[in-house]
Amino acid sequence: MNEKNFEYLRDQVKYSGFGEGLESQLKENINRQPPEFSLQHQATFGKDELNSSLHFKRSATTDMYFFNSYMASMKQEQATEKMNQTFYVGKDNNITLKEGYNLMSGRAVNKDLTNKEGKIYNAWLQMDFKQTDSAGNFKLKQFHENYGFKLENELAKHPIKELQNDQDKTKLMDSLQKGNRQAVTFVENGSEQRRYIEANPQFKSVTVFDSNMHRLGNRQSQEASQSKSKQQGQKADQSLGGDDGKDHHSGKKAKKEKGMVIGQ
User: Fold this and answer.
1) 193 lies in a domain?
2) Which structural domain range is residue 94 located in?
3) pLDDT for res 239
């Protein structure tokens, strides 16, 4: 057995989000030297089940194996059918198990990606459930930096308590960039309310849910934002002695939306 190849694959599987539980099966299969093999992995996220089949293939010229892809099959609590998606594994642009789950759940994931010229760029990825490729996989939409979505700016529009602390703010942004639906505390009219939020780059916003995971409409979110703005305005009036009477919003032009591409 190629020991270095085994160690590389073991770490690759681990850091792709599948943990260490497949190590012995991986070693056993490499020892048997089949042309290709698959390993099965089960995970639960809340009440959702995600079963994955990890595919390995031996080189045609050496004894080395490659972790080529994993096929994820998700069964959500309320769904009647399972959803399947294959994620390909290579040197760059890999999707971890948790990121794959978040994408299959319709959420967006922020990644540093590498283009064909080897240059690194940043983009939000989100599944396009209306388009599939020749293999039956849902295509991934990309929202590049010049598309105009700024997570930090959108978060600032909401009365989120965690934004008041730099460490909590960093943890919140990291979680949202991984595609998680994150619990936060809204401070509205002096009282605290549990809310859940997720990034929505396509619509350049943050989607808000109440404590029962019911999505709040734009009007409800705007009311919370207006409440925050009103409180900030009152503080500003107290410190500056009132409004200067100028219209700071006039003369702004609508910006064109650009930077979105659809690819595999």
Assistant:
1) yes
2) 3-105
3) 46
